[in-house]
Amino acid sequence: MAAVIPQLTEKAIEGMLNQEAKCPLVVQMVQYKKISDPHSNQTTRYRLHISDGRDSSGTCMLATQRNELIENGTLDNLAIIKKFVVLVDLEVVAPGRTVGKVLGDPKNGSKMSMEIQSTISQECEVSKNSSSLTASSTTKSDNNSTLTASSATKSHNSPITQGEQQKIIFPIISLSPYQSKWCIRARVTRKTDIRNWSNKRGDGKLFSVDLMDESGEIRATAFNQECDRFFSVLQPKQVYLIRGGIIKVANRQFTSINNDYELAFSGETQIEPCKDESVYKLPSLLFRFVKFDKIPRTNRKQLIDILGVVEKIGELEHKVARASQRELLKRDLFLVDDTKTAITLTLWGNEAENFKEQGHPIIAVKGVGYH
Asked: Would you list the DSSP string of 197-245?
């Protein structure tokens, strides 16, 4: 009995390139290409050439969390797939070995108008401490932050109008450098202090926020002028509509967030508080805990999340940085988890000074560096 071949979605490629497609879409993967750098530790990526029977496009990237579909043979050449959000949530509805041919007579979709914003790479040097674990953000077990957020002030950036708020909201997990027009609705789950940085090209300042929606997380960083624009605007636990910025490959050395990309605010970025009923559906925090006994086997270049009981709280210490001779505040916490493994967690700066817990609280820490 002949296999039933699903029908492809008409004008799916055109809709995706113009960002007007209504999901789900059924398209055919004509072929894929493995993209990897033998000199890099970055995860392998796959570029897909897809077709809707009329048009085709070779500019699609498969989200790395779906790599197993290719690696286990489920997603093969000529397979038909159902796309939900930029090839993140997809279902193989007919394997290529069953389809056996390219459907329709697709033309290259690159002839259609498509605006792609170029990405700009900004690098900064962040000092590393020699402690066994360095905390980035500390949270009590009831998910109430131990840090006090500063009061919000009015934004001076161009507002997003009510009409614009009705436009399509992109899931965070769907963002990639290949998109130029997007808007996300996300909750700020973490906000850093302003940090000064210096390298061969000069000095500057920055702060970062972790953003979350129902689909996932992304790290966003504001440099220099954008640091001044948005530091008082973005507040922990609040929800915002954010549009415009530079999407680039994430440096996993500085984040524990499970996302291949990160966001840098730019002069085109617009941020507006979101006050509709949808904000109550957004999660407040997401952890991916690593057991203490597994920490020595983790990649030291990546940040991790931990959960443990405080056995002992060290005194607040004053240290002097060797390079800058700047005074630093430091506090050691001695933790243990259910593997009966003990570790030393070092808090720096405001986190060290503002840690007021007593006794043996259970704490969750997001974004910890292991040394």
From this structure: EEETTEEEEEEEEEEE-SS-EEEEEEEHHHHHHHTTT--TT-EEEEE--
**Residue reference for tokens 């493995």:** 34
What are residue 16's phi and psi, to 5 degrees? Answer: -65, -45
**What is the spatial distance between Cα 172 and Cα 75, in angstroms, rounded to a whole number?**
24
In CATH terms, is domain 12-111 a member of 3.90.1150.10? no
Q: CB 87: neighbour CB atoms within 10 A?
A: 23
What is the CATH number assigned to the segment(s) 170-281? 2.40.50.140
* Pairwise CA distance, residues 346 & 332, whole Å: 4
Tens digit of each residue's pLDDT (9 = 90 or more) over 325-357 = 788 899 999 999 999 999 999 998 888 898 888
Q: Which pair of tokens denotes residue 217?
A: 């997380």
B/e letters for 235-269, b = 16+ CB within 10 Å, e = fewer, are: bbebbbbbbbbbbbebbbebbbbebbbbbbbbeeb
Give the model confidence (pLDDT) of 157-207 as tens digits: 344 444 444 457 888 888 888 777 899 999 999 899 999 888 888 889 999
3-state secondary structure of 103: coil
Domain 292-370 in the same topology as domain 170-281: yes
SS3 state at 108: strand
- Bridge partners of 246, per DSSP, are 264
The H-assigned helical ranges of 262-328 are: none
As assigned by CATH, the class of the 292-370 domain is: mainly beta
* Token output for 290: 């690593």
The total number of residues shown for the chain amounts to 371
In eight-state DSSP terms, residue 158 is: P
Question: What are the structure tokens assigned to 108, written together?
Answer: 């290259």
The H or E element containing residue 353 is helix 349-354
Torsions phi, psi for 127 (to 5 deg)? -70, 145
Please report, for the chain, the start and end positions of each structural domain, with discontinuous segments joined by +.
Answer: 12-111, 170-281, 292-370
276-315 residue pLDDT tens: 766 666 767 778 889 999 998 887 777 888 999 999 999 9
Helix ranges (DSSP H) in 74-125: 96-99
Residue keyed to tokens 């290719």: 70
Biggest CA-to-CA distance, the chain: 78
- The band of 240, judged by pLDDT with boundaries at 50, 70 and 90, is very high
Residues 359 and 312: their CA atoms lie apart, in Å, by 8
